[in-house]
From TrEMBL:
The record marks 86, 247 as: Important for catalysis. Its cofactor is hydrogencarbonate. Pathway: Quinol/quinone metabolism; menaquinone biosynthesis; Quinol/quinone metabolism; 1,4-dihydroxy-2-naphthoate biosynthesis; 1,4-dihydroxy-2-naphthoate from chorismate: step 6/7. GO terms for cellular component: cytosol. This is 1,4-dihydroxy-2-naphthoyl-CoA synthase. The gene is menB.
């Protein structure tokens, strides 16, 4: 589908597109012939693009999607599933999509799933771990694990249950049924449903609203939403952000400057807040 936006390519890859427009990065799985199923290479490329998104200060919001309008992602490519994981060019079996899930969760910028067509299996989990999901009317959601001999007991189960509730999450996994966009909206699995032709525009508009907001406030909010669920690693992320803020203060700078100037630090002028 023709885009109305002037996306520029940030980096060339083999199995994904990585584009930029007006503060927004778009990472798009480009394997429409298999409904955007991912291989270890697809995932490695997405991880690399995510790292670039993290470091690039021009990028304030990230869209995750799939090319073709018929699928967001159909999960791991079953044709390369081997003994112990998905097998790439190096012949090593791996489940590197779990690293990508962690990265989506930890990157301190909002990640929005833009879902047209199938979001199934590991592809469904990818949209679940995104901060927001916007679905086209043709979107179809579901897990297939127990049908195809796999399961994702991590975010794919536990975080899904936080999103839609325990009973619904168990139904989704135990029955492997498929749900349409309105079902998904009703169970709180997606934020909004729009006609397919409006999907990109709506997603970009949501990103633009986000980009008008304070990046530090957004960062702290994302870490705070995650901290409750992520235990020690969630606290570590939130505490790291507190350290970042502290580094910005004159109080913290006095400590560093005193060390470099080989003098005793003078913290007496800094307020002791109630
Ligand atoms: C999406 C479905 C329902 C669409 O059906 P439809 O419209 O009838 O299209 P098809 O004719 O079936 O598909 C079109 C072409 O695309 C190929 N294809 C589709 N999905 C895949 C796939 N996942 N892998 C490889 N090829 C795929 C079809 O074969 C077809 O090709 P041609 O035209 O050549 O015949 C339907 O396609 C469907 O059910 N797909 C499979 C969905 C699925 O089971 N996905 C895998 C689920 N598992 C995971 O994703 C694993 C996730 C993971 O990595 C993981 C993470 C944590 C812990 C564990 C795991 C784990 O290993 O499970």
């Amino acid at each position: 589908m023709q885009s109305r936006y002037n996306w520029t390519t940030l980096k060339e890859y083999q199995e994904i597109l990585f584009q930029f427009y007006n503060g927004i990065a778009k990472i798009s799985i480009n394997r429409p012939h298999v409904h955007n199923a991912f291989t270890p290479r697809t995932v490695a490329e997405m991880i690399d693009a995510m790292n670039i998104c993290r470091d690039n200060a021009e990028i304030g919001a990230i869209i995750l999607t799939g090319e073709g309008g018929k699928a967001f992602c159909s999960g791991g490519d079953q044709s390369v599933r081997g003994h112990g994981g998905y097998i790439g060019e190096d012949t090593v079996p791996r489940l590197n999509v779990l690293d990508l899930q962690m990265q989506i969760r930890r990157i301190p910028k909002p990640v929005i799933a833009m879902v047209a067509g199938w979001a199934i299996g590991g592809g469904h989990v990818l949209h679940v771990v995104c901060d927001l999901s916007i679905a086209a009317e043709n979107a179809r959601f579901g897990q297939t694990g127990p049908k195809v001999g796999s399961f994702d007991g991590g975010f794919g189960a536990s975080y899904l249950a936080r999103v839609v509730g325990q009973k619904k999450a168990r139904e989704i996994w135990f029955l492997c049924d498929q749900y349409d966009a309105q079902d998904a909206l009703q169970m709180g699995l997606v934020n909004k449903v729009v006609p397919l032709v409006q999907l990109e525009q709506t997603t970009v508009e949501w990103c633009e609203k986000i980009l008008e907001k304070s990046p530090l406030a957004l960062r702290m909010l994302k870490a705070s939403f995650n901290a409750e669920l992520d235990g020690q690693s969630g606290i570590q992320q939130l505490a790291g952000d507190a350290t970042l803020l502290y580094y910005l203060s004159d109080e913290a700078k006095e400590g560093k400057n005193a060390f470099l100037e080989k003098r005793k630090p003078d913290f007496s002028k800094f307020p002791k807040f109630p």
